[in-house]
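note to self: dont lose this again. the chain is below, predicted strucutre after it. 593 aa total, dont forget to put it in the shared folder this time
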Amino acid sequence: MSLAIKKYIFLIPLLLLAFILKAQDDEVTFEVKVSKPKLGLNERLRVDFIMNKDGDDFNPPDFEGFRVLMGPSQSISSSWINGKRSYSKAYSYTLAPTARGKFSIKQASITISGKVYKSLAKEIEVTAAVDKPSDQMTADDVADESLHLVAEVSKGNPYLNEAVTVVYKLYFSPYVSVSNFRALDNPKYNNFWSQDMPVTKYNAENATYKGQSYRYVVLKRVVLYPQKTGELELEPLSLDVVVDVPTNKRDFFGGRIYQSTNKTVSAGRRNIEVKPLPNEGKPVDFTGAVGDFNFFVTTSKTHLNASESLQAKVEVTGKGNLKLFQLPKPNFPSSLEVYDPEHDESVRTTFSGMQGKVNDMYTVVPSYKGKYPIPSISFSYFNPSTEKYHTLNSDEIVVNVLEGPTDATATTSGPIAANRQAVVSSGNQFGFIKLKPNLKAIGSNYFFGSRCFYLWLLLPLLLIPLFILFRKKREEYTSDIAGNKVRKANKLAKKYLSEAKKTLGKKDAFYIALEKALHNYLKAKLKIETSEFSKDKITSILTKKQVDQETIEDFIGLLKNCEMARYSPFSDVQMQEDYDKASDVISYLDKQL
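---
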């Protein structure tokens, strides 16, 4: 095959593509559009016959069952986009129905470039007269019918502490547009542990709502963990929405003019029936874990010398209410010195709930040589998928202390008891006593009667005024009840806020620690489980305890900041201010309680 023939063969696809594009450019469309497929006897119907090329000899249908009130009116629009011309011409009619029933807008015809084109027929249903005809409806009326705020709940009957996702969707008619919105009243989610999942981008998508075509935008997503059984109510989310409603007026270029109006929409109240966890088969060591988990107990090392330290970690990983239960505590041998654990959480909240890991880290220091077993411990949880309890057991760990003193009081058994260290003789129990001690006389410089003797004799007398002054200051200190309360309260505040202070600068960790500190303080001071109470309940309890209103508002404000910090940016300055405020609030509360 010659080179010239190959060249022409290569051009054939390009010619076919150009022919197809040219055919598409020359394609003629002629269609009919109606304002609504169903209307009342006292309403009006708009019919538009639209074509993409100019034509002649337009022949409308006879509009059987309707009376022509206005038309035909012509409108033409033409534009150039990226070098391509867009053209549209329409013949419009306004019709009034003459009877109830089903009628057909029959075919219309037009001649374009010497060829006759016909539109398709449209079925229209005319019902009895309506209370308020659509052509008399205001922009507010149209907005009322075109907006719907819906709270979609993932599960209506969850178990206690099982994750429930609530998605708030704003449905709006394709004929209107939403230009802005703001929240008027956010739900408080009483009796739920809640975690907001911020929506970073609002994308409109097509959907069907009550059998009609709509568009919707996801406005808010939140993950809830019910903390109480029975019927729980979700408070509604209320929004103020700016809606752009089309009018029958057009601008100079033929574009439709829109009218803006503000509408308040609400998601309505929703009820969730929370099931209690079954009592059948509930393990004795169950602490409220609900989900699907793994359980591990590990140590940083198993061989070390006395006075060295090791880290023992109790860890739970998986998916479920990771922040809402207590980890089991290991049973360490009494011969091991164990420090209070450091709690750590690495948990992220997804659309389906919390997942990640939590652990308690113990620092262990052995004092004596020997082998120390850390017995196996168990962790139990309830899995909503299987509707059963599961128990996981850790492996037994033996800590082998190689070098160090032997604990003579330790009651060990087996090889450890048989290995008690015997007293080893050094071979020098009986030393030689010198017969010539080389003693020297003291001479005249003896202590009694010397200056130092009288100084030591008078020293107790000199200390009496200092003792009296010290006692006076001590009495002033103990009698200063208000001052002692302030000092005690400040010390207590530093104790509870120590973990929060360590995480200053790390927003999520800081506010989690701060919220836990506030709840732990109330738990210790009032002997209550604050995780079961809402902010309104806490306010009621503190009011009964005669705490002043300003202190209560500051305390509740800090709890709100802890919740808002999960989905709002907070600066280091704001965190420092909240830390200082928390210290003051705990001090004020302690003085008043």
